[in-house]
Each structure stands twice: as structure tokens, then as C-alpha cells.
Amino acid sequence: MQITERTESEVREGIQHLNEISHPLENTEQLEPLMDLIGDARIVMLGESTHGTHEFYTWRAKLSKRLIREKNFSMIAVEGDWPDCYRINRYVKRYPQSGLNAKEVLGNFRRWPTWMWSNWETMALMEFLRTHNFDLPNARKVGFYGLDVYSLWESMEELRNHLKLENKEGREALRRVEECFHPFSSKEGNSYAQATQVLSYSCESEVNHLMNVVSKIGTSDEFDREFDFNTEQNARVVANAENYYRTMMRGDAESWNVRDRHMTETLSRLLDYHGSLSKVIVWEHNSHIGDARATDMEAQGMINLGQLARQRYVKEGVIRIGFGTNSGTVLAGTSWGAKMKTMNLPPAKEDSWENLLHQASSSNKILISSRFKQHKLFRQPIDQRAVGVVYRPEQESWGNYVPSLIPQRYEAFVYIDSTTALHPFHVDADPKQFPETYPFGL
After folding, report:
1. What is the CB neighbour count within 10 angstroms for residue 285?
2. Do 273 and 230 form a contact (C-beta atoms < 8 A)?
3. pLDDT on residue 431
4. Which of the residues 3, 70, 113, 174 has the least number of beta carbons within 10 Å of its own beta carbon?
């Protein structure tokens, strides 16, 4: 996606236009333009330009609370692993033996990057959900779910606990899967990925057989009305995670696409399970919720959740809201598996989307895309910041930006001028790490 040269007058006029059409954002009452935009939409996607920014979590939480209270949204689904997030779901719905407190539940997040959900910001959201759900019937309690695909071994462990003695066929199917993955018992996804390429080794048939068996047998738990759904979802994660790792060594876009197709499938399964009146709020990185067709991802053969959901649910309403910042601090690692630390996030580079918003004014603001999509400056690609769990400041001038047609990528954008790092619980990550995701750990 080529970024063309812009004249000084075009940039100046574009900045003035942004300043004229933006809505101020300092308190929850000023979220009204987003509430009006959302209307009766069934799916609202809330992004982030980094995985380690406090204000993105808190403003997404503020908007989510309003959507839950005022528009009866049914659940929050996030860029997190299914087993870990399902423990949060059990806690906020007050299922028996679901944990003494939110911090105890979040202490189970052991795989790097632990800080994405094991943090004070998530804990505050959990306590809100738990309180909100207190007097509601089970069918109306607001849930919390993970959409991601990485939890291959964790989901196998969950299945081991769920497939009870009477499920002989299920236990046998799981035994065959575990036996196939036994050479990689160190839980390193990259070792299995390498074996599929070098040795033509594959567990594809075993995991697909397990998924088919589990989908038919049914499981139950008198204290968890979602037990059967949870069991089947773990089987689907195992199958799709195997596919993800089998494709990732090819060096093309397919592993990314496997991941986002899985997230789209999980989102659809959640909506179907919770019924025709269900609504979902999605928390993911901008790279997943913003339409891939409006970025250079399309030229690389990449699709994403925001694109697929929009195509599938256009009649039911999909609103995608990007989040970004100009400068501050961010929590990240300098390499995959590295110790998390607070890093400086320098001012956005010249003529980037965030830089233009900063020049318009240094205040926080909301922008509705329909109000600036016709301006000449925004009908052409503009670099937009994208920082993942891996952040290398030395690449700031060239490596942390995505050329984007902003009004086509999102229906709205929330800009926080100066931001601060997340507040993590200092949970030690499992030293056996999965391989880095493309691009930049997003």
C-alpha cells in the first residue's frame, strides 16, 4: 500500500479538519458519540495500538460497562487463551469453586506475556462483572471468554479433566493426541512446528478425530451450565492450534490467517450459543479488529477478525473502534519471552496518524470515521502505530507502523494523547515459550 507525498497545505487542512470534527474525551459521559454510533449493533470491537497501555484498558472498560448496562451486551471476548479466560468467566459468574478473588484467578496466567491479562486493570473489570452479575439469572450473566488459539497443551489438560471415566471413546481419542505430541512434551510449539517441516511429522488426523468425537459425546457438570460448550471449545482449540503450528514455519501469511479464522469461529460459536439476542464486545489489538483490507496486510494475503466479522455479520451490525496514542510509557518485552519492563514510547513519527491527531490538539478525543472519510488527506494511506508484546524502540522510525486507510479500517477512533504502562501482577511466565507471532507479537 503506497503512501503518496502530501503537500503542506493538504496536511494543514487535514489537521484543521480533524480538530473541527473531533469530540472531546475526558469522562464517561463524553462517550456518547460512540454510544450513538453503536446503536443496535450486535458486535463492538475495541482495539489498542499496544498490548501494554493502561489507558486503553481503562477506556475500553468504561465503554464496555456502559454497553453492558445500557445496551445489554452479553459478554466480553478478548485476545487471550480460552482456558485462562474461561476461569475468569467462571469467577465473574460466581460458579462454585471458581476462586476466592480475582487476583487468585489471574495468578493462573503463566504463559508469556502474562501481563496482557494478569494486571490490575483486568482485575477491576472482573470485579465489576462479578458485582453486575450478582442478582442476575444464569442465562443473563455477562461472560468473559478468550478467542485465541495458542493453548494447545493447556486445552489438552482441560480435556483430560473433563472427559470422565464413562467417556471411553473421548479418553481414547485424547490418548492418541497426547501420544502424538509426546515427543514435544516440553510444550514448545516451535519444536512441533519444525518437526512438521523437517520430518513431515503431523498430528493433524489425531486432533481432528478428537474434535469430532468430543462434539458428539457431550459432557455435563451440575454447577457449570457451560461445561459442555467449554469442553468442545477446548477440543477445537487443540485442532486449530495444531494447524497454526503446522503452518507457521512456511513463512507466509497462513498461520496468521489460521489464528484469525479461529478467533472468528470462536466468536460465532459464542454468539450462537448465547442465542439470537446475544451481543459481544471484543478486546483485541488494532491489527486484529481493524479491517485488514484497509492496510498493507491485504497485499500480503492476510485476513483478520475485523474483516471476517464484518463480512459475516454486516446485517447485524459490526462497529470497529481503534485506539491509539502519541507518547508515554508502555509495558512490553524487547524479545519474545524477555522480562517485561516499562519502556518509553516516543512521540509518533512525523505525518503518522497519531502525529496528525497530536498536531490537531494534545487533548484526548473521539473521531467518527464518516465525518472525515471524504477529506482528501484521509482517502490515501497513512502510517498508523502498531506495538505488540515485543517492542524494539530502535525500530520506531520504520518498523512499528502499518499503512492504513483509517476511515475504512475503523468506524471510529479513540485517541489518548499521553499514556502510561499497564500495572501487572508480577507473575513469572513459564520458561517454555511458544514462538513469536507475526507481526511484532500482535
Report:
1. 26
2. no
3. 47
4. 70
Biggest alpha carbon distance in the chain? 73
Q: Taking a C-beta distance cutoff of 8 angstroms, is the pair 59, 416 a contact?
A: yes
Do the Cβ atoms of 131 and 140 come closer than 8 Å? no
The neighbouring-strand residues paired with 325 are: 416
Angle 410-414-415 (CA atoms, 0-180°, nearest 5)? 125
How buried is residue 113: exposed, middle or buried, by Cβ count under 10 Å (0-12/13-18/19+)? Answer: buried
Residue type, 283: W
Cell, residue 391: 517492542
Q: With 0.85 as the threshold, say if the pTM is over it.
A: yes
Q: How distant, in Å, are the alpha carbons of 37, 110, 216, 274 from that of 271?
A: 21, 28, 20, 5
How far are the Cα atoms of 56, 252, 382 from residue 3, in angstroms, in the given order? 28, 23, 7
pLDDT, one tens digit per residue, over 196-245 is: 887 789 999 999 999 999 988 876 666 678 989 999 999 999 999 999 99
Question: ω before 431 within 30° of 0 (cis)?
Answer: no
Distance in angstroms (rounded) separating the CA atoms of residues 401 and 384 = 5
DSSP letters along 252-272, please?
A: SSHHHHHHHHHHHHHHHHHHH
Which DSSP helix (H) or strand (E) runs through 366?
Answer: strand 365-368
Of residues 334, 387, 436, 424, the one with CA closest to residue 117: 424
Strand (E) positions, 147-267? Answer: none
Take residue 77 and report the three cell numbers written for it. Answer: 471476548
Q: Are strands 382-385 and 401-404 parallel, antiparallel or unpaired?
A: antiparallel
Structure-block grid coordinates of residue 98: 471458581
Helices 227-248 and 254-274, packing angle to 10 deg? 170
Give yes or no for a contact between 296 and 408, defined as CB atoms under 8 angstroms apart: no
Best CA proximity match to 118, nearest among 104, 129, 128, 130: 104
Secondary structure of 323-357 in the HEC alphabet? EEEEEEEEEEECCCCCCCEEEEECCCCCCCHHHHH
Q: Name the one residue in this structure whose C-alpha cell is 502510561.
A: 420
DSSP β-bridge partners for residue 323: 414
Pair 229, 145: CB distance under 8 Å: no
Tell me the C-alpha to C-alpha distance, in Å, between residue 61 and each of 35, 55, 177, 229: 14, 10, 39, 26
Where does residue 328 fall: left (phi above 0), alpha (psi -120 to 50 degrees), or beta otherwise?
left
CA torsion, ordered 331, 324, 151, 437, to nearest 10 deg: -80
Q: Are the CB atoms for 291 and 408 separated by under 8 Å? A: yes
**Which among 414, 438, 288 has a CA at the least distance from the CA of 354?**
414
